[in-house]
Amino acid sequence: MLLASDGSEGALQAAQRLVALRDDLREGTTLNVHLLNVQRPVSGDVSRFVASGTLEDYHRERSEQALMPARALLDAAGIKHADHQRVGDPGTVIAELARTEACDLILMGARGIGTHTGAPLGSVARSTIELSAVPVMVVK
């Protein structure tokens, strides 16, 4: 399973759902979980004036903050996970990592902390559903 987390309440609820799913499975203790945070790239204007090492540190710090709540919940439940931090278009990166890691399911919150607050589903969830070759569970 791939758990996409942006640090939002919706992402934490998706992590809670993953724990509940594990508890419902006969072989839940052998669940293979990939925990992912995707940071959006900064605009070209900013990246021209900031050193690449500084941008990498910025993305890494923000990603660590976003992963912290879900990581803590999974650790407390005894669920082993591989953590992934990426920079790019979130929907594309989530779908691609699910493909490369041979995940059977993607879990994510319905609405996170993205910029499109008017959509009931959220732009990242919608994009992930459109691009993914595996089922996507969107948790409200």
From TrEMBL:
InterPro entries attached to this UniProt entry: Rossmann-like_a/b/a_fold (IPR014729), Universal_stress_UspA (IPR006015), UspA (IPR006016)
Domain UspA, first and last residues per copy: 2-140
Pfam families linked to this entry: Usp
PANTHER family, per database record: ADENINE NUCLEOTIDE ALPHA HYDROLASES-LIKE SUPERFAMILY PROTEIN, USPA DOMAIN-CONTAINING PROTEIN
Family membership: Belongs to the universal stress protein A family.
Protein name as catalogued: Universal stress protein
